[in-house]
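Helix-turn-helix domain-containing protein
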Amino acid sequence: MGKYSVLFVENATEIAAMQDMVDWEQLGFTVLGGTDDCKAAQEQAVLHRPDVVVTELTLGGMSGLTLIQKMKALLPEAKFVILTDTAALASAKAAMPLGVSAYLEKPISAAELGHTFALLRKQLDAEAAASANMQSLRQYYQTSLPVMQANFYAALINGRVAAEDLPRYLSDYQIPLSGPCFACLLLHTSSTLGPSGVDPVLLRTSVLHQAKAFFGANWQVAIFSYLANTVIIVQLCRAEDAPGLTDEADRFCKEVRTTLGAVVTIGVGDVTADLLDLPQAYKEARTAVSYRSIYGASRVINLQEVEPTTEMTFSSSSDGGLSDLFKAIHVGPEAAIETAVDTYLARMNETATSIPEHTVVTAEMIGSLYRFAVNNHLQVSALTDNLKGLYLRLPELSPESLRQWLMTVAPAMHEQLKAARENSSTALIQNAKEYVRVNYSDETLSLNDVCQALSVSNSYFSTLFKREEGLSFITYLTNFRLERAARLLLETNEKSQVIGHLCGYADPNYFSSTFKKHFGESPKQYRSGLVANES
């Protein structure tokens, strides 16, 4: 049996021909079989974990490139071989960056097939040997570095990197960005306006590789794929270099239109001196790309040039003012909400100095408020009942009317959040009391047990219980046990040490002292006093 395994994803005739064409065992391979069904191929990949997958560009149900992408996710270490004819040879070669190890042009000869798999055997042997020593770990780190870097960049542009962690990430992931200035570009490759018959994934990949060569020739850049777009972080010597970058980006759009037939729109964000400010620059670049329906595709759009005063002030009004307003809605009281509304509207008026700017800022406010309501499960009719109508109506309101609308929506949100918290707190306290009622006789019952049962933290529960009940949870548990013990002393003839055990006290002496501290007399005196009073 061969050392490595191979799976064919091809029509039955081709599979049979290739199985008989060479001595697979002598080459070091075992043929697992084959299928022409893409779904079945993925199932066999999971089941048998082949070392090599042989397929072609055109398959029933999905393209070979799509299949390779899906199987790459299942088999990161597998080798892929593409079968192609002369007409599709260019596409096969272009697929090499996707992780394809080799391509074979039909008709295939036994010599060519044997030579290809002999080379694959050497690659697989080398990888197997490397994985057994420290060198393989270093190689794996270097191989994985682009993926780790891309993950870091994605976290960076989404604001998920803390300031204290940034230096470590820059060092660990060998990030080649030291400043002093940074710009963010978003490349959107149209999937509908590009050349017909070309796989969109392959086209985006080709654009990404061409962008690396184009922009990397003049600047230190970080380029990665994110959400079906290409994002480029460009390191600039001066903020004043941004216009030159915009001009070059526009030239790139024309170049890829000529060389690849790709319709690429590039959005450019504002220049920043701090990597941690890139989320705002990325947001601006993404917004700029969305304006392609107005300004046209296959070009660069820089909002700082198209609308010079808009984007800088949008951040201060939408992000800062609304954050304060949302905080006030969460915490209250209504006076604080009113102050936050007035502060936000004042910033909004400073930002929007024209009718178009006012329309955009108002639309951002509506969108942010709606997302806040949805994320917090709020139903405020003035906001949620006719969202489309709001986008048409609110920009037309006077400042006084807009304030009145906000002062209707924001307090309503606060009251719903407050009611939800109160209901949640009441239910949590009741569940805790029920847990005590059922488990109070357990001598090991503790605050930690109750919190684990309720899936809350000790600190949160302790604070909530003290606030709602006026005493600590431990005091409540002690009182509950002692009240139960007092009832048992009056209603049964059991010895006090037995009653103490039934109420969660393993030590009779501790039970007696705790009881006396609570009631002012020992369990025996408590029982005797009742008998004396009755006689």
